[in-house]
# Entry
Amino acid sequence: MRRSEKEIRDRREIEAVIREARVCRLGLSDGGEPYVVPLCFGWDGEALYFHGDSAGRKMEILARNDRVCVEFDITDGMREAERACAWSISYRSVIAFGRARVVEDHAEKRRALERIMAQYSSGAHVFSEESIRRTAIVRVDVERLSGKRSRPEREGTAEE
# Structure
């Protein structure tokens, strides 16, 4: 990272960003063309899960290329300024790289759906056997994580 003072090095802080995020963005490569999809997700500390239909562009791309990049971000505030180039935003973000695969095992699909629901609510959730069977689940085994934070600078310190 070019500006090391912005890097988040603590794994607990990186995971806190992931837990706090409500949407992730899945980056795929479709024959050299980038394709990004916003998704709801679940995180278990090692893998990321998302669900959807078993058909569609995202699943077609994943069948050809399992390498993915996932982005999470939290906006912590904005500082307005008199000069347009002095505006600033405070955020925390995480980028994950890994390999995606479709989950076929019924028990793992159930656990993945539980992780997805845990990202958004507490308590137990009931999934019908039919919904588990027909829902496509993708697991991203995360190989690398990096985090970054940016806090608003005082007016006059931003690059012009």
About this structure: The chain has one domain: 4-150. Strands lie at 7-8, 24-30, 33-39, 42-43, 47-52, 67-79, 88-103, 136-150.
